[in-house]
Specification:
Blueprint: H1 6-27, H2 36-45, H3 47-52, H4 57-62, H5 66-72, H6 76-93, H7 98-102, H8 105-108, E1 111-114, H9 130-145, E2 149-154, E3 162-165, E4 171-174, E5 185-187, E6 197-202, E7 205-216, E8 219-225, H10 233-236, H11 247-267, E9 274-278, H12 285-295, H13 300-308, E10 311-314, E11 325-326, H14 328-342, H15 346-352, E12 364-365, H16 366-372, E13 376-379, H17 382-391, H18 393-396, E14 406-408, H19 415-418, H20 422-428, H21 434-437, H22 441-449, H23 453-485, H24 493-498, E15 506-511, H25 527-534, E16 541-546, H26 554-567, E17 576-579, H27 584-593, E18 596-599, H28 611-615, E19 621-625, H29 630-633, E20 639-642, H30 651-675, H31 684-697, H32 703-715
Parallel strand pairs: 1-2, 1-9, 2-8, 9-10, 10-13, 13-14, 15-16, 15-18, 16-17, 18-19, 19-20
Antiparallel strand pairs: 3-4, 5-7, 6-7, 7-8, 11-12
Bound molecules: pyridoxal-5'-phosphate.
Pyridoxal-5'-phosphate binds next to helix 9 and helix 27.
Length: 721
């Protein structure tokens, strides 16, 4: 036997060290969260641990010893790590991006995008719902397109709550802490080599915030954190919970986000090409920009014009009550010291946020401030654009809503993030990447032509089976603590085993925040009719629900309780399921597994909605009220509508009408189409709809298209330059 020469051993040791550091490098940039192979690496290291740490690779590596990691890097896994790390590095250094070719101005200076929440991955719990997920998908696409992009938000120590239900189905909230050491975030270091700390004035105090940075591909997300010893404890709590606390907490958060955010950019020497306020929460940023101009000696009116020319604003709220408003007293108290130092008069400030310009004694509205200071504003779907123009017509004093300068850009999703795993592998058999598939309707149709009905149906079965497997694992935990929590000793696992979800059954999914306008329990309006639908002898149906109600929203919590109660009725047991703790991870499972994604808000209260867009590349079909994005996308063949956009002033009447349409469309169209199989046992009409949905929806309702629209219509200011 011949011994390996000494130098081979040395070489491989060096090689292995390099691979270990490549693995660690991958954990420090959330790029991995939209790369299927990168995620497979972490899962392969330890499938169980990967689940336990909520898919957080930084935390995963904290649980794996150096010895183990080094050894694991010496075989095939090591090769995979190097391959993925190589792809990551070439992604980071790619010069030939969309922006380089189409928007070089946005490569030079960054877009500064402000949002109170970012939903990038379930392991970084700084989001609550749709707004955050949209911001997360936006920043990923901006990175993919090569736009120089910085996000600004807060670092919430407790994040949004973890939901669990007691035996009565009542939502309880738990606020597990998240620690910087377990996240891929770094302290921002200032020019002096010390931690970068900025400060803002709140009431009579100077409040300090430490800055963190999080890499999202080529983009950087900055997070401000007031939870530092320099602050009094009630100011440390500003960065505790997403949308936590009262109005006072809210205004403090918004000052840190908006004013603090601008101060941070200044301290970093970043000069944005444009400031994008995503929803009104960050609109105080305009005051800080104004104060800077005034300080430099610019006269007020000219300063206002300059600021307005640098900002754009996206509104997300189609109902007047949904907009952030603060009382005059609260504004006076909170901005006292700020105004003294900035040279802005209190009445001038109030005027900037007054909906009625003749009355500065009313409420201060963040949306009004944002509209006053943006060169362009938009709603997030065509319908929402129209609703917003009507809502703010008075503010502009124009005779027709059409003259209100609010446009629209319809929301999308980051396709690569939402189509990861099995679905990603599926598409990659037929095309080099998802960008090719979603480039245009024609491109999608070309790819689809290479796929047989058998293959498409096989994908649907596989994804549905994966969801069902996931639900059983998940429900085991959920029922276990529902029973322990209420001191019920018997944990009824037999019920689960008897009544199992089946992949042969048409599966409907409904998951979103439990805001009451989304009407989660609508399908239960007529229990007998629903019973006939669900328990049909040859064409049964099963429904999976998930969603969180805001901790202060008892009506939303009661909706959850009602659904849980229904799910325990003998006729629905095991066929109607409520999954706890909806988050990005649960969303991914649900949108990929279900056959039909149900959406029944009160029109026109859903500004856009995006969850239905997530289901399409997995072969899911939308069934929705014609609200938000759906009236634009629905063509009669790519899903179903609930009614034709009929609206009634009376809520009861609306519910009755929409429920009737919901049932009849299910009974007469959706269910028969699903169960109609040809001689090869394939639901050919259903598959045709899936193909139509993929070809017409995926190329349009994604954030690559959306961010390109923002860049071309809003970020680039070519006419004014
Ligand atoms: C997509 C998503 C949402 C938004 O869903 P809508 O249908 O737009 O309300 C909310 N929460 C999570 C976790 C999501 O993934």
């Amino acid at each position: 036997m011949q011994l390996a020469p000494q130098n081979t051993f040395n070489y491989s040791r060096k090689h292995m060290r390099k691979t270990v550091s490549s693995c660690k490098e991958l954990t420090r940039n959330l790029w991995w969260s939209w790369d299927t192979e990168a995620k497979e690496i972490f899962k392969e290291l330890s499938p169980i641990l990967w689940e336990r740490v909520n898919h957080n690779p930084v935390e995963l590596l904290r649980h794996i010893s150096n010895e183990e990691l080094q050894s694991r890097c010496q075989c095939d896994l090591g090769k995979k790590i190097e391959r993925v790390a190589e792809r990551f590095r070439s992604y980071m250094n790619e010069p030939a991006t969309w922006a380089a070719a189409n928007a070089p101005e946005l490569v030079k200076n960054p877009v500064a995008y402000f949002c109170a929440e970012f939903g990038i991955h379930e392991s970084v719990r700084i989001y609550s719902g749709g707004l955050g997920v949209l911001a997360g998908d936006h920043i990923k696409s901006a990175s993919d397109l090569g736009i120089n992009f910085v996000g600004i938000t807060l670092f919430y120590k407790e994040g949004y709550f973890r939901q669990y239900l007691n035996h009565d189905g009542w939502q309880l909230e738990d606020y597990p802490l998240q620690y910087a050491e377990s996240l891929p975030i770094e302290k921002v270091i200032g020019p002096d080599g010390k931690d970068l700390i900025i400060s803002v004035n709140i009431a009579q105090s100077e409040v300090f915030a430490q800055a963190w940075s999080l890499k999202v591909g080529r983009a950087t997300l900055y997070l401000l954190d007031t939870n530092i010893p320099a602050n009094e404890s009630h100011y440390r709590d500003i960065c505790c919970r997403v949308y936590g606390g009262d109005q006072n907490m809210r205004i403090n958060q918004e000052i840190v986000l908006g004013i603090g955010g601008v101060k941070l950019l200044n301290a970093l020497g970043i000069d944005p090409a444009v400031y994008h306020m995503n929803e009104g929460h960050s609109a105080f940023l305009t005051l800080e920009l104004l104060a800077k101009e005034l300080e430099a000696g610019t006269p007020m009116e000219e300063a206002k014009k300059i600021i307005k020319n640098r900002c754009v604003f996206t509104t997300h709220t189609p109902v007047p009550a949904g907009h952030d408003r603060f009382s005059r007293d609260m504004m006076h108290y909170t901005f006292d010291r700020y105004l003294q130092q900035s040279g802005i008069e209190f009445d001038d400030l109030m005027l900037l946020g007054s909906e009625d310009r003749s009355n500065i004694y009313g409420l201060f509205t963040m949306t009004v401030l944002a509209l006053n200071f943006s060169r362009a504003a938009n709603g997030v779907s065509k319908l929402h654009g129209e609703v917003s123009r009507q809502m703010w017509q008075k503010l502009y004093g124009v005779s027709s809503a059409d003259e209100v300068p609010i446009g629209h850009i319809t929301n999308g999703i980051h396709s690569q993030s939402w189509a990861s795993g099995v679905t990603d592998h599926f598409w990659r058999k037929y095309t080099d990447n998802l960008d090719t598939l979603t480039a245009s309707r024609q491109a999608a149709e070309e790819v689809l032509a290479r796929i047989s009905d058998e293959e498409l149906w096989c994908l649907r079965y596989r994804l549905k089976r994966n969801l069902i497997d996931f639900i059983y694992r998940y429900l085991g935990n959920q029922l276990f603590h529902q029973h322990t929590h209420s001191m019920y000793p018997e944990y009824d696992s037999s019920r689960l085993a008897k009544n199992t979800l089946s992949p042969d059954v048409l599966t409907i999914g409904f998951a979103r925040r439990f805001a009451t306008y989304k009407r989660a329990p609508l399908v239960f309006r007529d229990l007998d009719r629903l019973n006939r639908i669900i328990n049909h002898p040859t064409m049964p149906v099963q429904i999976v629900f998930a969603g969180k109600a805001h901790p202060h929203d008892d009506a939303g919590k009661d909706y959850i309780r009602q659904i849980v109660e229904h799910s325990r009725r003998p006729q629905f047991s095991g066929k109607v399921i409520f999954l706890e703790n909806y988050n990005l991870g649960v969303a991914k499972r649900m949108v990929s597994g279900v056959d039909v994604w149900l959406n029944n808000p009160v029109r026109p209260m859903e500004a856009s909605g995006t969850s239905g867009e997530k289901t399409v590349l997995h072969g899911g079909l939308n069934f929705s009220v014609l609200d938000g994005w759906w009236p634009e996308a629905f063509n009669g063949e790519n899903g179903w509508s609930i009614g034709h956009g009929e609206t009634f002033d009376d809520y009861q009447e609306q519910d009755r009408f929409d429920a009737e349409k919901l049932y009849s469309t299910l009974e007469n169209q959706i269910i028969p189409t699903y169960y109609e199989h040809d001689e090869n046992n394939l639901p050919v009409k259903w598959l045709k709809k899936i193909r139509n949905a993929i070809a017409t929806i995926a190329p349009e309702y994604n954030t690559h298209r959306m961010v390109r629209d923002y860049a071309e219509k809003y970020y680039l200011n070519r006419n004014n330059d």
